[in-house]
Amino acid sequence: NTIWKKGYWCRDSLQATNLFVIARGISLDVSGNIYLSGYINNDNPVSGLSSQILLKLDAQGNPIAWKKINEMAFDVFVFTDDAIYLLDKRQADISYYPHNKKSATIAKFDHDLNLLWLKKYSGENFPYYTANITASPTGGLYLSNVTTGVYPVILAELDANGNIVSQKGYAHYTPRVHALDNGSLVIASASGVDSLGNLDPRPIVAKTD
């Protein structure tokens, strides 16, 4: 049975028009507060970019706070016991994300939606098209991404301040990656590389420790 159901209008001011919001992530804290992440579609006619939105509701669905972040493509939402992480990444090699061509940008917020830090991770020939983040058991993050080169699968461990603690690369061909919360990776690729550096033409599924 439905306990409550509510709709929300989001406006920059009482005089502004309503903004069209698309929700992407949802989570709850131990007090029952609800957190929504998403983006506002077509609210910036100059650049044509969408804006990220964070919305905090109480356990009855009443708004407590909201925050709009202009001209970012925060597409991944990770919620932990003490923080909210958003990952901004390039979705494809296309022109309408001009501010983030070859990098992954992570923003960390507390549960009151205050920005704690924002950092960009980039490198030569490292287009973070398939980047993802997962919470680590040490209070930081695992940042996984697929780049170019001999070892295109990269897993970086970040501490709670966003500093890189360690990085490791894995040799795969056109891989897709999923990072688990214990730091291991599940990798699927069209083909692999054997211990001698030769291309293995078979489809490959691998898991790391």
List the helices and strands and how they pair.
Layout: E1 21-28, E2 34-40, E3 51-57, E4 63-69, E5 74-79, E6 84-89, E7 103-109, E8 115-122, E9 132-135, E10 141-146, E11 153-158, E12 164-170, E13 172-179, E14 185-193, E15 199-200, E16 204-207
Antiparallel strand pairs: 1-2, 2-3, 3-4, 5-6, 6-7, 7-8, 9-10, 10-11, 11-12, 13-14, 14-15, 14-16
Which labels suit this protein?
single chain, 209 residues, mainly beta, four-stranded antiparallel beta sheet, 16 strands, elongated
Characterize the structure shown.
- With 209 residues, the protein is an all-beta fold.
- 0% of the residues lie in helices and 49% in strands.
- It contains no helices and 16 strands.
- The protein has strands at residues 21-28, 34-40, 51-57, 63-69, 74-79, 84-89, 103-109, 115-122, 132-135, 141-146, 153-158, 164-170, 172-179, 185-193, 199-200, 204-207.
- The strands form four sheets. A four-stranded antiparallel beta sheet has the order 1-2-3-4, with no helix packed on it. The protein has a four-stranded antiparallel beta sheet with strand order 5-6-7-8, with no helix packed on it. A four-stranded antiparallel beta sheet has the order 9-10-11-12, with no helix packed on it.
